[in-house]
Amino acid sequence: MPWDVASVAAELLRCEDEGVDRPPFTDEWPELDLETGYRIQDLNLEARLARGETLVGVKLGLTSRAKQERMGVHVPLVAWLTDAMLLAAGDPVPQSRLIHPRIEPEIVFVLEDRLAGPGVSCASAMAAVGSVWGGAEVIDSRYRDFRFQAGDVVADNASSGAFVTGPVGLPPTALNLALEAALVEVDGQVVDSATGAAVQGHPGEALALAANELAKRGHALEPGWIVLTGGMTDAVPAPPGASIAIHFSNLGSIFINGG
Ligand code: OOG
Ligand code: MG
């Protein structure tokens, strides 16, 4: 066995810290399945906390058909968010610490109440939400060309990189999230769009999924946590100089590198 949980975890953090990519581990270690991937992910959360980062919430990945088909992985994922990943409005893409960033529009929740699975439904999940925001996630895979299997990407904290939330936070009762639209513009051209329904039929379903999935690993979602519910559209490349805007129908606009 060329790899194990500890050595994959260490290698992924090294790639992240040094800004280098690599082939997926499943090329050499096909037994790296989802369960093993989550053990690696949890080990690296401990490493992130040990070096002073704070846990601020979770992200879902591959919750829309657009993302699943593009990445070739057909199962939704959960991963950790820390304060080191938070961008402020107007911050540029942190190119120097990222390998090949891509940007995707997401509906973001901030939790008011604790949410613990199993058995969480969309309605009970939404009842725990304090506010809803538009968001942009800057994903960055440690795998060359974003080529990976499910176990690889789970181990890699679901390609976490950075994220930013938009200017408008609304109570969840103020809008129909299945209809909330996001329009993605690159250099002034509209390149993609979707509504919240692209995310599991309703982003609240993704939140429920996170609570139920984390329950299997002995965790609950805590009050104040940020939850990124997953890319609504395919992600767009964000090389240096690309100017990207995401316009939500009710949740405002996010401008990256000038928009
Ligand atoms: C995996 C991360 C997926 C999302 O929102 O679907 C993700 C990837 O696409 O590299 O963050
Ligand atoms: Mg995402």
Automatic annotation (TrEMBL):
Tell me the ranges covered by the Fumarylacetoacetase-like C-terminal domain, including all copies.
75-253
Cite the Gene3D superfamilies for this sequence: Fumarylacetoacetase-like, C-terminal domain
GO MF assignments: hydrolase activity
Matching Pfam families, A to Z? FAA_hydrolase
Q: Is Ribonucleoprotein there in the keyword field?
A: no
The record's keywords, sorted A to Z, are: Hydrolase, Lyase
PANTHER family referenced in this protein's UniProt entry, alphabetically: 2-KETO-4-PENTENOATE HYDRATASE, ACID HYDRATASE
Identify this protein by name: Fumarylacetoacetate hydrolase family protein
What species is this protein from? Answer: Nocardioides aquiterrae
